[in-house]
Amino acid sequence: MEHALQLAGVHPVTDRVASLAGAVKAVAAGDRDAFSRLYADYSRMVHAILLGRVPRRDVDDLVQDVFLAAYMRIRELREPGSFGGWIAAIARNRATDYLRQSRDQVDLPGELPGGDPIEADTFAVLEVIRKLPEAYRDTLLMRLVEGMSGQEIADRTGLAPGSVRVNLHRGMKLLREQLEWHHE
Fold first, then answer.
1. pLDDT at 112 (0 to 100)
2. What domains sit in the chain, N to C, each tagged with a CATH number?
3. Which of 22, 45, 23, 46 is nearest to 34 (CA)?
4. How far is Cα 71 from Cα 32, in angstroms, rounded to an integer?
5. N or C, fewer C-beta in 10 Å, the chain?
6. In whole angstroms, what separates CA 24 from the centre of its chain?
7. Maximal C-alpha separation, the chain
8. HSE-up of 110 (CA within 13 Å, CB side)?
């Protein structure tokens, strides 16, 4: 399909990068609507990256922090077409900073009574995913939690679609192995 589009003079990847670069330049020039579009396109990716690293209760606030930082620093982005990788790095760095600052706080143990059994299973799976290598963790959370397609993940992260497929496949294999191990 993509090859047929290229023959017709349409280049989906090039057009997406140009469109993204245009949106980033518009934001740098003060266009808030363009920033809203970037937020709509990239918030699920940022949410997934943070969810794999920080307590769930803090993810939404940190998503806002990441986008505020991106908005304030957007003029520093040298390659506007690489916004996805840039904001992903901001999200990872924000998660690291958050964890450094919150080491003094003590989380409650997960075995406290109460709560929905389905929610408890969800937390258990999330804990297993958090222990996977970063590439698998991020793509699995984008797919399983955020509902992003493989193509969406590739578009947002800048990874090749084949790399996304490999990360999802290997990540699911590792996840299944870990879950089977936990249930034995």
1. 46
2. 1-107 (1.10.1740.10), 111-184 (1.10.10.10)
3. 23
4. 10
5. C
6. 18
7. 61
8. 12
For residues 6, 11, 12, 17, the Cα torsion angle rounded to the nearest 10 degrees is 160
Residue 118's pLDDT band (cuts 50, 70, 90): low
Residue 151, pLDDT > 90, answer: yes
Tens digits of per-residue pLDDT, 72-104? 999 999 999 999 999 999 999 999 999 888 765
Provide the token pair at 157. 């992260």
How many angstroms separate the Cα of 106 from the Cα of each of 92, 109, 152? 22, 9, 36
SS (H, E, C) 123-159: HHHHHHHHCCCHHHHHHHHHHHCCCCCHHHHHHHHCC
Query: Which DSSP state fits 55?
Result: -
- Structure token digits, residue 153: 């993940």
Tell me what the mean pLDDT of segment 146-166 comes to.
94
Which residue type does 22 have?
G
pLDDT at res. 5: 47
Of residues 8 and 29, more confidently modeled: 29
What is the distance, to the nearest Å, from the Cα of residue 114 to the centroid of all Cα atoms in its chain?
Answer: 30
* Amino acid identity at 138: D
